[in-house]
Amino acid sequence: MFKTKEIAVDCQKDIHSKILKNKDYIDKNEEKRVKFAVVKTYGCQQNASDGEKLSGILENMGYSIIENEEKADIILINTCAVRQHAENRIFGNIGALKSLKKRNPNMIIAVCGCMTEQKEEIEKIKKSYPFVDLIFGTHSLNRFPELILNVLENKKRVFIDNDQDEKIYEGIPVKRKGNVKAFVPIMYGCDNYCSYCIVPYVRGRERSRKPEDIVSETQKLLSAGYKEIMLLGQNVNSYGKNLDEDINFAELLRRIDSFPGEYRIRFMSSHPKDATHEMIDVIAESKHICRNIHLPFQCGSNRVLKEMNRRYTKEKYLDIVKYAKKKIKDLSLSSDVIVGFPGETYEEFKETLSFIEQVKFTSLFTFIYSPRKGTRAFSLPDPISKNEKTMWLNELLRAQEKISFKIYENMLRKNFRVLVESRGENGNTLLARTDSNLTMEIEGGDELIGQFKNVEVIYASGRTLKGKIV
Ligand code: SAM
Ligand code: SF4
Ligand code: F3S
Questions:
Q1: Which residues contact 398 (CB under 8 A, 6 or more apart)?
Q2: Quick one: 260 and 311 in the same domain?
Q3: Which atom of ligand 1 is nearest to the CA of 294?
Q4: Are residues 338 and 294 in the same domain?
């Protein structure tokens, strides 16, 4: 097991000197005008958080971060490998950049993230997408400044395909999306090796950040006016295992909850096998932690859970839920479900249906099983057709819709505390979020953004909630 001293590295000076070197090079050798960069991120919040670091590095190099690819000097595609569908979409989007590069040969196109931790995908991009200048994976994020400089100076393609660096680099600049909610990674990687999942192979071994680094980042964010802190990790409940200090996730939550002022804490994801009574007690007693837990159960059949290597049974999951519902008033739960794991029968799938009826999740993220090369489940016989699995998925969605709609309807005429997050896409209403992580439309001016308000739900239908400030 790693020890803190080996895994935590304060790279502030190092990375800043590399960034300045790039800035210098660009100032001396490139056209004198504002430079633009686009960072396009796919996948989960961990990847979104990495995308914010990559944007921070680019901004410190002098690039202005924009959305419009047509105007970009650098386009960085930060990829996800969790399902084949995600990879196909990304390949499609990389392919679409060919014409842009033709029009602007000086544009740098870089591909990074989880997909480019896989040798086969790197080879595919190298061969089939010759206009891609730079490829690097999740393990090389801190090397991004020197890799870009390499491409600029040598005008050659750069590929990193064997970086095993699993140190934690503190002090990388971050350009956050918005100024109300902020991601704070508390750990990286995953050691769980669920048999269907590619994440441990592309993100490396589980390693926790030191509590003082997490606490100090949170303090700075709160002082800067952020109102919601989202703690990130693939399995936050196992936080602290590799650290010198004897600390677990419950204790970290206590420390993050201890600051004055009005703010919210969320975390994602919890693994049921490590969800403890202590963690639930801390949530129940806390001032700032949302009464909402995302606790992926994946499947309602014990046989399939065993095949998935999830290391809990549905009974153990239901026990945690029972304890949490008893302890935490107004608790809401959300979850992830995989439909059609190799060998799953319709009878076993029906156990998933009865499971969601028992727990009554506020929302579900549902996925059809996607075979991932290199994982244990990849070689398992998988006799059920995609069509059949799609029918199961639709059945699950219909069942969940009924549950969610009922939860929404029950909210009508009741009061909730919401955080106003942004103006909605229609421009007319504001978007606010309940403690239970549901979005609600409310009327009001932009000055409300970033404020907590009490609202009464005046409309609840389907997936739409509308509220009025009280
Ligand atoms: N670490 C989190 C956990 O265990 O709860 C989940 C992280 S994973 C990025 C998000 C979700 O993707 C998983 O909970 C699972 O439902 C889904 N997933 C992962 N691998 C998958 C696969 N091969 N096919 C379909 N869904 C998958
Ligand atoms: Fe994947 Fe399992 Fe790790 Fe989650 S806990 S990232 S599903 S291996
Ligand atoms: Fe996340 Fe996708 Fe990587 S879900 S960890 S970005 S494989």
A1: none
A2: yes
A3: 5
A4: yes
For a mutational test of ligand 2's pocket, the pick from 138, 191, 235, 298, i.e. the residue with the most ligand atoms closer than 8 A to its C-beta, is 235
Q: How many angstroms is it from 40 CA to the middle of ligand 2?
A: 23
Total number of domains constituting the chain: 3
**Span from the CA of 338 to the centroid of ligand 2 (angstroms):** 12
Nearest CA to ligand 1 atom 20: 197
On whether residue 213 sits in a domain, the answer given is yes
Same domain, 45 and 121: yes
Q: 371 and 230, same structural domain?
A: yes
Let me know: does 435 contact 228? Beta carbons within 8 Å.
no
**203: Cβ below 6 Å to ligand 3?**
yes
Q: Judge whether residue 7 has pLDDT over 70.
A: no
CA nearest ligand 2 atom 4, residue = 234
**Ligand 1 midpoint to CA 337 (Å):** 8
Q: CB-hemisphere CA count at 13 Å for 7?
A: 23
Pair of tokens at residue 448: 């409300």
* CA atoms within 13 Å, Cβ hemisphere of 202: 31
Q: Is 333 in the pocket of ligand 3 (CB under 6 A)?
A: no
For 222-275, the pLDDT digits (tens) are 999 999 999 999 999 999 999 999 999 999 999 999 999 999 999 999 999 999
Place of tokens 């033709």: 102
**Is 311 exposed, middle or buried (CB count within 10 Å of its CB: 0-12, 13-18, 19+)?**
middle
Domain encompassing residue 377: 181-409
Query: What ligand 2 atom has the least distance to the C-alpha of 310?
Result: 2
pLDDT of residue 15: 82
Q: Is 451 in the pocket of ligand 1 (CB under 6 A)?
A: no
Q: What is the pLDDT of residue 5?
A: 38
Ligand 3 site, residue 80, Cβ cutoff 6 A: yes
- Mark which of 409, 425, 443 sits at the end of a domain: 409
pLDDT over 70 percentage in the chain: 97
In this structure, the answer to whether residues 198 and 242 fall within a common structural domain is yes
167 falls within a domain: no
Q: Verify that 401 and 427 share a domain, yes or no.
A: no
**Same domain, yes or no: 227 and 361:** yes
What is the rounded distance in angstroms from the CA atom of residue 160 to the CA atom of residue 122?
Answer: 9
State the residue for tokens 């994602």.
268
List pLDDT tens digits, range 295-326.
999 999 999 999 999 999 999 999 999 999 99
Ligand nearest to the CA of 296: 1
